[in-house]
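At this stage, I put together one protein's amino acid sequence and its backbone structure tokens, which the following lines show:
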Amino acid sequence: MLIEFARAKAGSTIATIRRRDGVLLELPGYDRKHRVPHDLAHVVTERELGMSGGVFGSIASGAMFSNMRVVDGKQRHDAGERSKRLLKANREALVLAEIMAGVVHDAVEHEGGRSVCAEARRAWASVSVDPFPWTDQQLTDAVRRLTELAANYQRDDAVQVTWPDNLSSAVPDPPGIKRGRRGRNKSG
């Protein structure tokens, strides 16, 4: 998936997203007060941390957020229902993506403030008792990559990013679909 972030007329950002299925989407940003586009922070953070259930992994699989619009291409016949299933299945992952993208975004926006690793662990602990799933290197790589892309965006008023196919979210089956082996007898 190819994503281009460009400065919109009103000073915010608009992301143009070309999905693998040929559908072209627009995702407006509401980040006039930030130097670094927040949705760019999502792309970088989710990609560097391998978050397939976040915003852009969900979009890659067909999720549509309420502020998005189709610009070109033909969506699947079941696009609306597919989107609902994805958003419901990824609810927790989307919250985590928002939290982690916020930490990375803040680190880049405020250039060298508090430790991104300590902040990420603190944010994680506020929503989960599980062990922190990422390494310090992944977090510092996310900050470094977002810093580079933010500089390019500041210079050119636009930047392109690719989303890897292997980070597309799994699409839940529609209700009523049963998977498994048919006709299997109980004796073997």
Observations:
- Residues 2-163 form one domain.
- The longest helix spans residues 136-156.
